[in-house]
Every structure is written in C-alpha cells, then in structure tokens.
Amino acid sequence: MPDRDSRDVPSPRAQPATGPETDETGRTGALDARPDETDAERRRRRARFLRDLAEARELRDRVQPRRVKVARLRHAMRMRTFRW
Predict the structure, then answer these.
(1) Per residue, what are the HEC states of 11-67?
(2) 22 contacts 28 by C-beta, under 8 angstroms
(3) pTM greater than the 0.70 cutoff
C-alpha cells in the first residue's frame, strides 16, 4: 500500500508551468527536447526517420500483399472517377 502522505503532494505533471517560455501544454520551447540542436542535425535526424518510415512501409507491403492490392485498386478507382 502506498504511503498515505503522498496523496497530499501533487505529482510534478499536475502542477502548471510557471515559466514565460512555456506554452499552454507546459512544454518549453519547440517540440523537440534539444534546444542546442543545429539545423543540419535536425535535418539528418528527420532524414533518418523518413528512411525508417519508408522501410517500415515497404515491409508492411511485403507481408500484407492483399492490403497493397486493395489500396492500389481503390486508388485506381478514385483516379477513374476524378473529374478534371
């Protein structure tokens, strides 16, 4: 059983942020936690993420060929019914 005194102390997440640089969600600055990150590092990290995402999509397409076929047919139907 947890200590009864801990109920009176709110968790750090429940306390509102007080700094001027925080937004309404309580986070400081930008969404990333690396304020000293350069643009080149951010672009490198983003490129790595996009490569991993593309690899995951290719893997999903290989292991679920029926889903890929249905998606391809659905896309073809949309293209046929689209009016220019």
Answers:
(1) CCCCCCCCCCCECCCCCECCCCCCCCCCHHHHHHHHHHHHHHHHHHHHHHHHHCHHH
(2) yes
(3) no
SS3 79: helix
Q: What is the pLDDT along the chain (84 residues), one digit of tens a residue?
A: 455 555 555 555 555 555 555 555 555 555 555 678 899 999 999 999 999 999 999 999 899 989 999 999 999 999 998 876
Tokens linked to 63 = 């292991």
CB 29 within 8 A of CB 35: yes
CA angle 77, 82, 84 (to 5 degrees): 150
Length of the chain: 84
Using CA atoms of 27, 33, 35, 39 in order, give the dihedral in degrees to the nearest 10: -120
In degrees, rounded to 5, the angle at the alpha carbon of residue 78 between the alpha carbons of residues 74 and 81 is 135
Task: Please tell me the distance from the alpha carbon of residue 45 to that of residue 43, in angstroms, as a whole number.
Answer: 5
